[in-house]
Amino acid sequence: MKNIIVGQSGGPTSVINSSLLGVFKTAKDLKCDKIYGMVHGIKGLLDKDIVDLREQIKTDLDMDLLKRTPSSFLGSCRYKLPDIEGNEETYKKIFEILDEYKIDAFFYIGGNDSMDTIKKLTDYGNSIKSPIRFMGVPKTIDNDLAMTDHTPGYGSAAKYIAATMKEIICDGLVYDYPVVTIVEVMGRNAGWLTAASALARGEDCSGVDMIFLPEIPFNIDLFLKKTGELLKENRSLVIAVSEGVKVKDGRYVCELADHVEYVDSFGHKQLSGTARYLASRVATAYGVKTRAIELSSLQRCAAHMTSRIDITEAFNTGGAAVKAALNGLTGHVITLKRVSEDPYMCITEPQDVHLIANVEKKVPLEWISDDGTFVKEELVHYIRPLIQAEIAPLWVDGLPRHLKIQR
């Protein structure tokens, strides 16, 4: 019999709990004895805030609800483990707790920073010859993990962004006077999410007018010039912009208007205000009505609009991690490998965590237009399979029902 423990870390997604379900159900099917959950990730483990997942997920209905529940069921954290050298007491405490619970395998569902945690725990475990296996399960709407075709969570966020852009475009066309709408999409250094705006274009929708990604330095003069040119031909413009776009000198566009105060434990500044700043510049330059929309956390918690492909792949990565660990693998992350385009198909594949942790995958420059104001068809072709099909919420009294942790 084996004991396992699983945690969730970083920003949530609308399918992160499907990965948790993949870990739980596979461990249960493989006759693991204890299946523990860390409440608030590695920080919860250090605080010994641990729950028995068999007591939380008791029925088939619970499993169906968990799969459809947004955010992180176990709670999350942004806790950065210190470097091993000079901080061994932290690692000794972690391994003492894992030994106390007789843990055989440790699973962490998260993005770049979470894979850094798996890397450090693996390295320390190897140094003391611990038999505990450590496996990463990928998660991030940012789609910026290396060595994987894409990350679970991205497809559903892309689906929400593209659908919302279509609705915003329809809304802007109701008036007989010009309106410029700037939509700010998450994406600190990688523009995968903002690029999904391009999928709004179709037979029934003209699509967004411009897309700006952080991979290309943002030129405010070019932005205003192109906006003016488009206003001569259109009464409504919708422009998608990543929250992390920077001007040539390295400053975030949002910093041109607001002083950013909050910085998390990983050194990430809180980014907000890009759309407001650019909308103000357009209003001043052209005297037209403008709107600034920040999709913010909506793009990562819209579980009512998840992609079935995304939910399935999230579940599969969680299950594959358990199978790999119980077969003796450690220090790896389960990645997705695209093996077919038509029909679309991805398989799971373990990769060494050292090749993934702290490596950021950005949108290839060859998939961005030469002037940096739109994306190319190759990028649309890459994203489109990931948003396919839906999974309906379980509706109760007109609203989706979710599963809530019991304490």
What does this structure look like?
- With 407 residues, this protein is α/β, with parallel strands linked by helices.
- The chain has 2 domains: 3-140 and 303-358 and 391-400, Rossmann fold (3-Layer(aba) Sandwich); 154-301, 3-Layer(aba) Sandwich (Rossmann fold), CATH 3.40.50.
- Helix content is 34%, strand content 18%.
- The chain contains 13 helices and 13 strands.
- It has helices at residues 16-29, 41-46, 53-56, 60-67, 88-100, 112-127, 154-172, 192-195, 220-231, 274-286, 298-301, 308-326, 377-383; strands at residues 3-8, 34-38, 50-52, 105-110, 133-138, 179-185, 210-212, 236-242, 289-294, 332-341, 344-352, 395-396, 399-400.
- The protein has a 7-stranded mixed beta sheet with strand order 3-2-1-4-5-10-11, with helices on both faces.
- Helix 1 links the parallel strand 1 (3-8) and strand 2 (34-38).
- The longest helix has 19 residues, at 154-172.
- The model has no long low-confidence stretch (mean pLDDT 95).
Task: Output the keywords.
407 residues, alpha/beta, Rossmann fold, 2 domains, seven-stranded mixed β-sheet, four-stranded parallel β-sheet, 13 strands, 34% helix
Could you outline the blueprint of secondary structure elements for this entry?
Layout: E1 3-8, H1 16-29, E2 34-38, H2 41-46, E3 50-52, H3 53-56, H4 60-67, H5 88-100, E4 105-110, H6 112-127, E5 133-138, H7 154-172, E6 179-185, H8 192-195, E7 210-212, H9 220-231, E8 236-242, H10 274-286, E9 289-294, H11 298-301, H12 308-326, E10 332-341, E11 344-352, H13 377-383, E12 395-396, E13 399-400
Parallel strand pairs: 1-2, 1-4, 4-5, 5-10, 6-8, 6-9, 7-8
Antiparallel strand pairs: 2-3, 10-11, 12-13
Helix pairs in contact: 1-12
